[in-house]
Amino acid sequence: MIAAPIPHDEANRLAKLFDYRVLDTAPEPNFDELTELLAIVLDVPIALVSLIDEKRQWFKSHHGLEATETPRELAFCGHAILGDDVFIVEDSHADERFSDNPLVTGEPRVRFYAGMPLITGDGYKIGTVCGIDHQPKTLDEDQRRILDIISRQVIDQLELRKNIAGREEILREQDLTLQRLDSANEEIRDFVSVVAHDLRAPVLNAAGFSDELLASADELEKVIGRAGGDLSDEARNSIAEIINDDIRDSAVHIQRSAKQMDERIAAVSSISKYGRRELEVENVNLCQVVKQVCDDHEIKLKSVGGEIQVEDLPEIDTDKMSVQLVMENVVANAVKYRDKKRPLRIKIWADVEPDGLVVHCKDNGRGIDRDDMASIFVMFRRVGLQDRQGDGTGLAFSRTIVNRLGGRIWCDSEPDQGSTFHVYLPSGQSLKTGVA
Amino acid sequence: MTQVKPVSIYVVDDDSGHSRLIEKNLRRSGIGNEIEVFSDGRDVLNRMQNERKQDQPILILLDLNMPGLSGKRVLKKLKTDERTKQVPVIVLTTSDSPEEIKECYELGCNLFMTKPMRYEKFAENVRQLGLVFQIVETVPVS
């Protein structure tokens, strides 16, 4: 018996084979059907898809044969992969390379062998597809041609298999990454809500005890009032000064800071609460949403002689609450930062875009300085004239909401002319998977 | 001479500032009951499980966020114990999360209140509530 020599490109050939990640995998119909077809067409009892591993040949498909692998040195296929064409042994008994091969002298009694190398796109021969008979045989042209075609079908199947596996792996990895992101998000939200509540406790003390200080100041004033002539005018005056300028003034400052802190904590907490809420995608009548928001501001608008003009707005599949919150913030912003020099005019309209729409809200307010533009969507950052109450969270919150919907919010502004806020809202059911 | 122990209100809060403010404001709103402060949930449970029925408080103000035994566990223990379940409990906490509120009512709390920035209103609410239940003693506000 003469064992087949090892191909010159063996290392790369093996690497290529391993790349398919097919060795020792379960049988698959795509391959079994091809060997069944081959057996029929060649009229042989055995047909194999044989892959030549380092020490063995392993059968991805073995029609008519129990064995799933044999040692490489016995493999006919080891010879077949040395050439580029169909390799045929018409009668193994008459071939010195095979006549004493245990696969010939014993089971499965290989007498006839015809194998076509499985040649990869870049030229490596990783195995064969072959037919085996227990008696001598010849192949005609058509049968050789079919063997060749099936060998290429097998390679195609292997490629397909690899691509699918690769894609599945990518999907698995993406899934894992998403899961990790999800749980990280959840942790952050939980963290924010816990921190917010923990922070409230000391703030409440600051607020409560400054109230106590103010109450004590009142008491002290009463006591001094009752003291009458026991105190000199000078003492009375300086005590009054201490009560007013020191105690009351300090207490009021502490109170104001505590209140501010509490509002900010509440804002952070409400953002985290919003993030915990599941988005509910439904068909939203944008006109209705915006009208509702405008109605909420009607009294304020009337009192300053302002007007909101709302154009016909389309419907969109989105999360209603999110859109409500954003529009509320945008309109409130326009009302709050109006320019007193002229009556407030707000105009709201929308443009339909592929996969969604852009809502515009244009005002003739005081506008935003170019230098401040970058800060307006940043948490707690307030820009321009600080003559209005605000916690500096409205636009930051809006951006968080719009991002969660997979949209975008941005602003054009001309100082002393007004601002236009634009909100891109994507439409559709895809939002359901959105994470904050 | 028999001394009748005055009915009291228990305040359970690990933050001594909060319990002091609660106490001061309850007083200011005209509540005359004895007010006893516990900074650890275990202490209040110990006390109440060994207390004669007539010595038990008429109202408990309970904080949720406490180290050691949490307010929720104190609430659960109080409300599942035959000896203590009838004592009204007001949960008083910094949180206003709907889940937490729901959970506390499920555990049997009688009222859930979020700790306010201004305690006056809160103390007034407690007083009104107490009057409805006829459990608080009022004293003239000085």
Walk me through what this model shows.
- The complex is a heterodimer of chains A (436) and B (142).
- Chain A is an alpha+beta fold and 436 residues long.
- Chain A has ten helices and 13 strands.
- Chain A has helices at residues 10-19, 29-42, 76-80, 102-105, 141-227, 233-276, 286-296, 298-303, 320-336, 394-404, and strands spanning 46-52, 56-63, 69-71, 87-89, 112-119, 125-133, 281-285, 307-310, 315-319, 345-353, 356-363, 408-414, 418-426.
- In chain A, a hairpin with a 5-residue loop joins strand 5 (112-119) and strand 6 (125-133).
- In chain A, helix 5 (141-227) runs antiparallel to helix 6 (233-276), helix 7 packs across helix 9 and helix 9 runs antiparallel to helix 10 (394-404).
- Chain B is of the alpha/beta class and 142 residues long.
- Chain B has a five-stranded parallel sheet with strand order 2-1-3-4-5, sandwiched between helices.
- Chain B starts with 7 loop residues before the first strand and ends in a 9-residue tail after the last helix.
- In chain B, 34% of the residues are buried.
- The model of chain B has no long low-confidence stretch (mean pLDDT 84).
- The A-B interface holds A 193, 197-198, 200-202, 204-205, 207-209, 211-212, 215, 258-259, 262, 273 and B 15, 17-18, 21, 24-25, 28, 65, 93-95, 97, 115-120.
Topology:
The complex is a heterodimer of chains A (436) and B (142).
Chain A: H1 10-19, H2 29-42, E1 46-52, E2 56-63, E3 69-71, H3 76-80, E4 87-89, H4 102-105, E5 112-119, E6 125-133, H5 141-227, H6 233-276, E7 281-285, H7 286-296, H8 298-303, E8 307-310, E9 315-319, H9 320-336, E10 345-353, E11 356-363, H10 394-404, E12 408-414, E13 418-426
Parallel strand pairs in A: 8-10
Antiparallel strand pairs in A: 1-2, 1-6, 2-3, 4-5, 5-6, 7-9, 10-11, 11-13, 12-13
Helix pairs in contact in A: 2-5, 5-6, 7-9, 9-10
Chain B: E1 8-12, H1 16-28, E2 34-38, H2 41-49, E3 59-62, H3 71-80, E4 89-93, H4 98-107, E5 111-114, H5 119-133
Helix pairs in contact in B: 1-5, 2-3
